[in-house]
Design goal:
This protein has 146 residues and is an alpha+beta fold. Helix content is 31%, strand content 31%. The strands form 2 sheets. It has a 5-stranded antiparallel sheet with strand order 2-5-4-7-6. A two-stranded antiparallel ribbon has the order 1-3. β4 and β5 form a beta hairpin.
Length: 146
């Protein structure tokens, strides 16, 4: 095996694993008396409304392992709630569930795994993108060393 592959391997491992202080999710409510429209427009990279879910879970006595976003439509009043989430049934992957109470009450909640994955726009597979970048890097390194 080429020496350049061994040189790139530690870099790939460092990039692939996040070494943070625990899971972080956006935590806010777009209701007018709460965080209003800023919560509805949270985008990746935003530093507003970040909650350390691991720390919050210790305070709440819960095991937060995912992020959640809920979109509620009650008689035309749409509210978005972002929060930490538990994961009681590990057999269910990242998912969205739609519920309808009456014709005027609709709720959609989505759960996801990963840092701040409950923003307005999501990149669902950052690990896959990291792996793809690593493979391209390895291919490039092996072609240069020939």
């Amino acid at each position: 095996m080429d020496l350049s592959i061994f040189c790139l391997l530690p870099i790939i491992l460092i990039v692939s694993f996040h070494s943070g202080e625990g899971l972080e999710c956006y935590s806010c409510n777009s209701g007018k008396i709460y965080d209003d429209a800023k919560c509805a427009a949270v985008t990746p990279g935003s530093t507003d409304f970040i909650q350390n879910c691991t720390k919050q879970g210790l305070e709440d006595g819960k095991d937060y392992q995912r992020c959640r976003v809920i979109v509620q439509d009650v008689e035309g009043d749409v509210r978005i709630v972002r929060s930490c989430a538990t994961w009681p049934d590990r057999s269910k992957p990242n998912r969205c569930v739609d519920r309808t109470g009456t014709s005027k009450i609709k709720v959609r909640y989505c759960e996801c795994e990963g840092e701040k994955c409950n923003g307005s726009l999501r990149i669902n597979n950052s690990s896959a993108l990291t792996l793809l970048a690593a493979v391209v890097g390895l291919l490039f390194a092996s072609s240069v060393s020939r």
